[in-house]
Specification:
Chain lengths: 424, 241
Amino acid sequence: MKDNSTHGYLDMDLLRFTTAGSVDDGKSTLIGRLLYDSKAIFDDQMEAMEKASSKRGTGEVDLSLLTDGLRAEREQGITIDVAYRYFATPKRKFIIADTPGHIQYTRNMVTGASTANLAIILVDARKGILEQTCRHSFIASLLGIPHVVFCINKMDLVDYDEAVFTRIQKELEDFSSKLEVRDIRYIPISALKGDNVVDRSDRMSWYQGPTLMYLLENIHIAGDLNHIDRRFPVQYVVRPMTEEHHDFRGFAGRVQGGIFRKGDAVQVLPSGFQSTIKTISLGEREVEEAFAPQSVVMTLVDEIDISRGDMIVSPNNAPESSQDVDVMLCWFNERPLQPGGKYALKHTSRDCRVMVKEVKYKMDISTLHKAEGDQTIRMNDIGRVHLRTTVPLHFDKYQRNRYTGSIILIDEGTNETVAAGMIV
Amino acid sequence: MHVDTGHNFEETMTFRDNLVKEHGAKLIVGSVQESIDQGKVQEETGFYASRNKLQTVTLLDTIEKHKIDCAIGGGRRDEEKARAKERVFSHRDEFGQWDPKNQRPELWNLYNGKKRPGEHFRAFPISNWTEMDVWQYILLENIPIPSIYFSHVREVFDRDGVIYANSSFMRLKPEEKPRQMRVRFRTIGDMSCTGAVDSPASTLEEIIEEVASSRVTERGTRMDDKRSEAAMEDRKKEGYF
């Protein structure tokens, strides 16, 4: 039985993971099984799915109907947009970002990956590594997902043969040496038959490792956030100006790195002024310290000029500050990136404008090589681009801090979000 | 802002008024009755008549009238399959329309809040919370809620497997016989589309226990979601909250 006491519940951690794959690699079946076996599919949902499945004349209940929530998706049997699913076991809470593998695949995978702790990449045991396996792995690596689990699926169709699993694992290991993922795991499964998903398979006694669910419940994620470099982008200056709080000036924001303690010396960017933390409040409660990803209000001992977009950091560990940044840019829009073009940029709580100075190269994300020939960055493309900003950005490299190392670009004419970038 | 269908539970209205009084807040009310009186929408007829769909017109008119940039709501992705596709910071064009196939991608926690005059946003800060998260938070922070979330006895009748509260807004079929029953509401819309659940849960702890063991989703009692397979998506595209 689940521990429903508030204490037990609120102490559970949250694991966010992505699943990437195409139509028939068993992704929906796997998600369906995780949800079904953790009792996260409800009777009325099951009934609605049965009704919809029978309308379509498919014999079995189609579990993809659970995540394909839009009419167009259900009609065409494809996933258009990232779908989020929620479930909990007695050990952890989970959010699945189910990212479709075709239309707008880069946009969807990148979006799902941006906040994930872990990526599940399905590999069909009969087919081995495909182009899309490479694509998914590269995006997981580029977006800094700390843990990647390759599930070698459909083991039932290769007679649960250890040699098949070992061969694919070896191929994946060779390929993954080019990636920057800290923790890579391999599990032989059959999502359809349930082998090694929640319950250990008795048909693959040669496999000694954990089941997928055991891994999801126990993998160590506390170290995924940066608790070293102190970074506090200011979102809002709290000035109640009431009788009671006449002189109160607090700085609200979310800690994006490091641990801030009362009494710590801090430096404010871009002004460079230094001060000391006087108080930290979490909600209405005063606390001794705050760390990522808490949202808090800080007050400082000295009255110095701070506004939205500024960053409070530690004096001896400042981020880089520059108007010239190199990013790996993922392009989402039908209109290609305009070299020399100007866009609006968002970085932490800072807004400014940028000019595209240079496209350094375009990636072939299926081979991980630099693409030859045409260097136009079109929808679903990824390339290394040099940007010049109107004001200095205070940033870390993305691989060091996901939140101070990421940007989005916005088309100033249409207001669409056209690209996401990881600072390199 | 409250879009009042005129068919709300009395307890909801009392809660609303007390909340406004306590915080000294300014309340904007958009009235569906007024929209009907002005001829902007037409009342549905028959046993299943509901003002649920009509309130979209009132909502959009009220947003336009008060030049609201952003309407913040408590919608969550785990509630419903179309809501599962919703953004945290969701753009609406000048017609208040939601375009689910062409939404702005949301990465990390960088939200694009740029809009043209006349357009607005719907923001859903607790998008990623689950029903259980909400109840645990209410318990932890001791947050007041309308009394009908707790078990109470009221006059109800059964229709299509749903337990409805009897009221002057509902037209009963001859075979529908009102009876007294101990119920609570797990989700609260207006009276014409919200079903009750048979429940003895009269404390937050008991509600949490009940939610944990329930085999039906939170909105399983909402008839407004069941008008068609894509009822929520269709309404949201038109501007429904």
